[in-house]
């Protein structure tokens, strides 16, 4: 059904709405303040947010803008106690789905949530359905890296692309699994058809089932019309199931049936549909361990891993870091109106010392932030995040740490100025959560 976040500081109303909405089958989240609401949105990515206009630490009208910046595909319904028309008009301008008056419009809440959920779900599907024309930017030649580990992975991917067997991509978050998946599709006989991607960890159980397989009209509350699932959208092409290890056990059985028979049932339907789809799956989990613990089907694992490719983490191929940095600088600097002529050896040396838990994705964010901070045509260590600056080697090859709270304050001020005070964008560039940014702003009196 999807996730609904309710933000209201009146506990009685919060609990009442939670019960009403929960009984309809939605996963209900709660928050009692502006900041708590933002945190819930960041952590759980709800499809619909039901929010009071008046919150103890901010305005629900302003919160609409923050949520739409943070999660543009989520829908926000504003609740007002007094039917304040100017607030309602401004909320709609800020991107709200609708606004209703507490008490008087209680009978409208459930139908409105159903419509908002359907809109959010459709928008997400559209954003994740990638036409093959878009996929043409991904080829094996564009995969960066000269290290043996990444070259071996590319060689394997080239070989399997020409076949039609399922592929399982393994590796840590940010190692480029979707890039590999799209490259395999691009070099396959299915290139002219759709490439559809879905992150299995982004949905609740019921919503993931509906997203993958579709549903008939009336299959559940809010199912106002028949909807295609992503497998049907991908017919003839490729579907990429990211974070497959997060998929619920019973849904794994449905996926296994598709792999074995090429058939599936829509929710609420009795007649199976026949499809022709290549499945590429990816995971950062140890599926052997998941099988041993009873969380993943062994038979599905063997069907998915007909051909398995492991993507190495960035810390195991630090020699490729300069290549990635050059590529990111080339791609990003022109968009920012910056000219970078020199990348300091010390800048690269510090990057090579970082553990890169977020891998290539994290490296890109760091380079992007460096370009924003840079006041010259040279990338130097002093524009790196403070935690990385502390990795500078000392003469005895150890590491030295020192108090840089003053520099951190100046750094945050600089990024806030660059984003014209946009805290959501500032938190993204700084690589910290929005709530952490608010805390630091308060701590430093910014």
Structural overview:
The protein has 446 residues and is an alpha/beta fold. It folds into four domains: 3-124, Response regulator (Rossmann fold, 3-Layer(aba) Sandwich); 131-312, P-loop containing nucleotide triphosphate hydrolases (Rossmann fold), CATH 3.40.50; 314-402, Helicase, Ruva Protein, domain 3 (Orthogonal Bundle); 403-446, Arc Repressor Mutant, subunit A (Orthogonal Bundle), CATH 1.10.10.60. Helices cover 47% and strands 15% of the residues. It has helices spanning 11-22, 34-44, 60-70, 85-93, 106-128, 132-135, 148-161, 177-186, 205-213, 230-233, 249-261, 287-292, 298-304, 321-336, 345-353, 359-373, 386-389, 405-418, 423-430, 434-444; strands spanning 3-7, 27-31, 48-52, 54-55, 58-59, 75-80, 98-101, 129-130, 167-170, 195-199, 214-215, 227-228, 238-242, 263-264, 273-274, 278-283, 307-310, 342-343, 378-379. Strands 8-10-13-16-9-17 form a six-stranded mixed β-sheet. The radius of gyration is 24 Å and the shape is flat.
Task: Briefly summarize what is shown.
The modification 4-aspartylphosphate is found at residue 52. With 446 residues, the protein is of the alpha/beta class.
């Amino acid at each position: 059904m999807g996730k609904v976040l309710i933000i209201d500081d009146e506990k009685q109303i919060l609990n009442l709405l939670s019960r009403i909405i929960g009984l309809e089958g939605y996963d209900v989240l709660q928050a009692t303040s502006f900041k708590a609401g933002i945190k819930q949105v960041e952590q759980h990515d709800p499809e619909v947010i039901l929010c009071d206009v008046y919150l103890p630490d901010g305005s629900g009208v302003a919160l609409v803008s923050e949520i739409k910046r943070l999660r543009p595909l989520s829908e926000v319904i504003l609740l007002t106690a007094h039917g304040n028309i100017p607030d309602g008009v401004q909320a709609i301008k800020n991107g709200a789905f609708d606004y209703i008056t507490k008490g008087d419009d209680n009978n409208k809440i459930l139908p409105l949530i159903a419509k908002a959920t359907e809109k959010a779900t459709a928008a997400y599907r559209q954003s994740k359905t990638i036409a093959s024309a878009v996929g043409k930017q991904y080829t094996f030649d564009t995969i960066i890296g000269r290290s043996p580990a990444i070259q071996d992975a590319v060689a394997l991917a080239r070989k399997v692309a020409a076949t039609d067997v399922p592929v399982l991509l393994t590796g840590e978050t940010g190692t480029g699994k979707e890039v590999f998946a799209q490259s395999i599709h691009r070099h396959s006989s299915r290139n002219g058809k759709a490439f559809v991607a879905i992150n299995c960890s982004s949905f609740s159980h019921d919503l993931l089932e509906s997203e993958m397989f579709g549903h008939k009209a009336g299959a559940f509350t809010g199912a106002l019309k028949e909807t295609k699932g992503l497998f049907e959208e991908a017919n003839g092409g490729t579907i990429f199931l990211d974070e497959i290890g997060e998929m619920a056990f019973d849904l794994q059985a449905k996926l296994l049936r598709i792999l074995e028979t090429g058939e599936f049932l829509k929710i609420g339907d009795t007649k199976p549909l026949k499809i022709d789809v290549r499945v590429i799956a990816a995971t950062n989990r140890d599926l052997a361990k998941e099988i041993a613990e009873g969380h993943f089907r062994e038979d599905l694992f063997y069907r998915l891993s007909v051909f398995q490719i492991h993507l190495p983490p960035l810390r195991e191929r630090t020699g490729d870091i300069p290549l990635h940095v050059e590529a990111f600088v080339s791609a990003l600097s022109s968009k920012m109106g910056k000219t970078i002529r020199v990348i300091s050896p010390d800048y690269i040396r510090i990057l090579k010392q970082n553990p890169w838990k977020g891998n290539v994705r994290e490296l890109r964010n760091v380079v992007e932030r460096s370009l924003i901070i840079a006041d010259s045509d040279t990338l130097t260590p002093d524009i790196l995040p403070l935690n990385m600056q502390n990795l500078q080697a000392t003469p005895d090859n150890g590491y030295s740490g020192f108090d840089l709270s003053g520099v951190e304050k100046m750094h945050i001020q600089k990024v806030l100025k660059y984003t014209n005070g946009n805290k959501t964008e500032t938190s993204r560039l700084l690589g910290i959560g929005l709530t952490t940014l608010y805390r630091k702003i308060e701590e430093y009196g910014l």
